[in-house]
Specification:
With about 575 residues, the chain is α+β, with helices and mostly antiparallel strands. It has helices at about 20-30, 55-75, 100-120, 140, 150-155, 195-205, 265-280, 295-310, 320-330, 340, 345-350, 360-370, 375-400, 410-445, 450-480, 480-490, 500-525, 530-560; strands at about 5-10, 10, 35-40, 45-55, 90-100, 125-130, 175-180, 185-190, 210, 230-235, 240-245, 250-260, 285-290. The protein folds into three domains: about 5-180, Formiminotransferase, N-terminal subdomain (Formiminotransferase-cyclodeaminase, Chain B, domain 1, 2-Layer Sandwich), CATH 3.30.990; about 185-350, Formiminotransferase, C-terminal subdomain (Alpha-Beta Plaits); about 355-560, Formiminotetrahydrofolate cyclodeaminase monomer, up-and-down helical bundle (Four Helix Bundle (Hemerythrin (Met), subunit A), Up-down Bundle), CATH 1.20.120. Strands 1, 2, 3, 4, 5, 6 and 7 form a seven-stranded mixed β-sheet that branches. The longest helix is centred in the C-terminal third of the chain and has 36 residues, at about 410-445.
Length: about 575
C-alpha cells in the first residue's frame, strides 16, 4: 500500500533575520510526521522558500502552524524586498508526491486555506488547481497590486477572498494557498561551452519555443500578430521551461529546464528529447544534473523507459531501476547522485526504524526464532508469499531473455511488472502484520481503573483486533493474485523453469493458508460477530479457490514434465 505523501513549499516575506526564519521552521518541525527538506533565504528578495514533506495530516498542520507563526513575527507594513509579495506568508502551495491524487491535494489545500482565514483572520486566495474561479488560477493575478494595493483590492467584490475576512490585515497581509503539480529543476550537460548553441537547443524543446522571424531564423525581422505581439514557434515539450547557459564552475554549457508537470513531460522524456535536438545541431549530451529532490516514481519510470527501449524486462527491483535511470541519464556526470539524498521517499525514510524487510535472511530467521512473539506466523506467511510470487517474476524475466523469443519480450516484461507489484505489496504486509500485533499489545496495556478508562481500553482492543484480522486477510487476497502469473508462466514461460513456477505455487498456497490461520485466531477474540462471520466467509472462499488453483497448476506441470 503506497503511503500518501505531499509536499508544501511556503514562501515567507522574511529573508534577512535568521532568528525569525528559525522560529517558523521550528513550528514546522514541531509536527510529528513532517520532514524539513530545504530552507532557502534571500537577502535581496527578503523572502525565504521552505520545503517540507510528510503525510497529508501532518503537512496540513505544519503548514497552518508556520502561517500562524509568520503572522506573529513578520510585520508587512515594514517589509521591503525585490520579490512581488502580499503577505507574511505570501504563498503556500501543496504538491502531491506519491499515493495521493491532485483532487485530494486540492481538498487539503482548501481546508488549510479555510482554517487560515477563520482562525487567523487572514484573507486567503486559492490559486492554480485549488482556484475557485478561472481568473484566480494564475498566482500573478491573485497577487496583483501586492501588499500596497491590498486594502483597495479587498473592497472590490470581484476580489472577495475565498476564505477569511474582506478586511485589510495590516500586519499579515493576505496569503495565496494553492495546489500544483510537482516541479523538477533538471539540467542537461553538453560537450560545448557555447551559450548560443545551448540556447538554440533550449528553444527547440521548451513549450514557449522561439520567436518567429522573416527569412533568416537568426537575423530576420521578428514576426508579430495583429495585436503587435511576437509570434512564437512552439518547442517540442509541453510543460517545460528552458534556457541555455554556461557554467564556469563546470566548464560546460547546460540546458536548464523547469519541468512544471512531470505527468506531462517526465525527466526521461525531457532528457531524450534534448539528446535528439542536440545531436541535430552537432552537440553531444554528456549527462545531466538534478537540482533539488524528485519523487521516487519519476526515477522508476525512467528506469523502465530505458529498459523498454532496449527491449529488456522492467520487472526488476526498485533499486536496480534507480541505477538504470542514473546511468542512462548520466546523473553522476558532475556530482555523485545519492538516491537517499535526492529521492523524496528515501529522504523521508526513518533510518532508525527497524523493519523486518530490511533484514538479511539469517537475521530475519533469527528474529523469528527468538523468544519475542513477533514476527510470527502472519509476517512469515506474507514473506513466503512474496518469495512465491518472486519465483513467477523470475520465470517471466528469464523467458524474456530466452534465445529465439525476442518478439515476446514485452509480454514477459508486463508479466514481470505485475509480479513485482504483488511482491512489493506482500513485503509491506510483512511489517504491517507485526505492527498489527503490537497495536493489540499496546491496547491491552492501557489503564482500566475507571469505567471510562475501561471503555476506552475495550474499544482500543476491539479496533486493534479488527485491524489484526484485516491485515492477514489482505495478505491472502494479495497473494492469490500471484496464481494467475504462475499459471501463465507454466503455460507460456521458459520450459526449463517450470519447476520454479511450481515451487512458487506451493509457496503462495502456504502463504494463504498460513494467513487464514491468523485471521481465525484473531477473530476468536472479537465481539463484533457479524464482522467475524463476514471475514471468515471471505477467507474460506479464498482458501478453497487457492487449493483449486494450486491443483490446476501442479497438474499442468506434471503433464509437461512427463511429456
Amino acid at each position: 500500500m503506497e503511503k500518501k505523501i505531499i509536499e508544501c513549499v511556503p514562501n515567507f516575506s522574511e529573508g534577512r533575520d535568521m532568528g525569525i526564519i528559525k522560529q517558523i521552521t521550528d513550528a514546522i518541525e514541531s509536527v510529528e510526521g513532517v520532514k524539513l527538506l530545504d530552507v532557502d533565504p534571500g537577502k535581496d528578495t527578503n523572502r525565504t522558500v521552505v520545503t517540507f514533506v510528510g503525510n497529508p495530516e501532518a503537512v496540513s498542520e505544519a503548514a497552518f502552524r508556520s502561517v500562524k507563526k509568520a503572522s506573529e513575527l513578520i510585520d508587512m507594513s515594514k517589509h521591503h524586498g525585490a520579490h512581488p509579495r502580499m503577505g507574511a506568508t505570501d504563498v503556500c502551495p501543496f504538491v502531491p508526491v506519491s499515493g495521493i491524487t491532485m483532487e485530494e491535494t486540492v481538498s487539503i489545500a482548501r481546508k488549510v486555506a479555510e482554517r487560515i482565514g477563520v482562525e487567523l483572520g487572514i484573507p486567503v486566495y486559492c490559486y492554480e488547481n485549488a482556484a475557485s474561479k478561472p481568473e484566480r488560477r494564475n498566482l500573478a493575478s491573485c497577487r496583483s497590486g501586492e501588499y500596497e494595493g491590498l486594502r483597495k483590492k479587498l473592497t472590490d467584490p470581484e476580489w472577495t477572498p475565498d476564505f477569511g475576512p474582506s478586511e485589510f490585515n495590516e500586519r499579515a497581509g493576505a496569503t495565496a494557498v494553492g495546489a500544483r503539480d510537482f516541479l523538477v529543476a533538471f539540467n542537461v550537460n553538453l560537450n560545448t561551452t557555447s551559450t548560443r548553441r545551448a540556447n538554440a537547443i533550449a528553444y527547440d524543446v521548451r513549450e514557449k519555443g522561439r520567436p518567429a522571424r522573416e527569412g533568416n531564423s537568426i537575423t530576420g525581422k521578428l514576426m508579430k500578430d495583429e495585436n503587435g505581439d511576437k509570434i512564437m514557434i512552439p518547442g517540442s515539450l509541453k510543460s517545460v521551461k528552458a534556457i541555455g547557459w554556461y557554467i564556469e564552475e563546470y566548464g560546460i554549457a547546460q540546458i536548464s529546464m523547469n519541468l512544471t508537470n512531470i505527468g506531462v513531460t517526465p525527466v526521461h522524456i525531457a532528457f531524450d528529447e534534448v539528446c535528439r535536438k542536440a545531436d541535430a545541431r552537432g552537440v553531444r549530451v554528456t549527462g545531466s544534473e538534478l537540482v533539488g529532490l524528485i519523487p521516487l516514481k519519476s526515477l522508476l519510470d525512467a528506469g523502465r523507459y530505458f529498459l523498454n527501449k532496449q527491449q529488456r524486462s522492467s520487472g526488476i527491483s526498485d533499486d536496480e531501476l534507480i541505477r538504470i535511470a542514473i546511468r542512462s541519464m548520466g546523473l553522476n556526470d558532475i556530482h555523485h547522485f545519492n538516491p537517499e539524498e535526492k529521492i523524496i521517499e528515501l529522504v523521508m525514510a526513518d533510518k532508525k526504524e527497524r523493519k523486518l524487510i530490511d533484514m538479511n535472511l539469517k537475521a530475519f530467521m533469527d528474529e523469528t526464532a527468538s523468544d519475542s512473539p513477533a514476527p510470527g506466523g502472519g509476517s512469515v506467511s506474507a514473506y513466503i508469499g512474496s518469495l512465491g510470487v518472486a519465483l513467477g517474476t523470475m520465470v517471466a524475466n528469464l523467458s524474456g531473455h530466452k534465445r529465439g523469443w525476442d518478439d515476446k519480450w514485452k509480454m514477459f516484461s508486463d508479466y514481470a511488472e505485475k509480479g513485482k507489484a504483488i511482491q512489493n505489496s506482500l513485503l509491506l504486509l510483512v511489517d504491517e502484520d507485526t505492527m498489527a500485533f503490537n497495536r493489540i499489545m499496546e491496547a491491552f496495556s492501557l489503564p482500566k481503573k475507571s469505567d471510562t478508562e475501561k471503555k476506552l481500553r475495550d474499544d482500543a482492543i476491539e479496533d486493534a483486533t479488527r485491524n489484526a484480522i484485516l491485515i492477514p486477510l489482505k495478505v491472502m487476497e494479495t497473494a492469490y493474485q500471484g496464481f494467475e502469473l504462475i499459471y501463465e508462466m507454466v503455460e507460456k514461460g521458459n520450459p526449463n523453469s517450470i519447476s520454479d513456477a511450481g515451487v512458487g505455487a506451493l509457496a503462495i498456497r502456504t502463504c494463504i493458508k498460513g494467513a487464514f490461520l491468523n485471521v481465525r485466531i484473531n477473530a476468536a477474540g472479537l465481539k463484533d460477530k457479524d464482522f467475524v462471520t463476514s471475514v471468515i466467509a471471505r477467507g474460506a472462499d479464498l482458501e478453497s479457490r487457492t487449493e483449486a488453483a494450486e491443483k490446476a497448476i501442479l497438474e499442468r506441470i506434471t503433464a509437461k514434465i512427463i511429456m
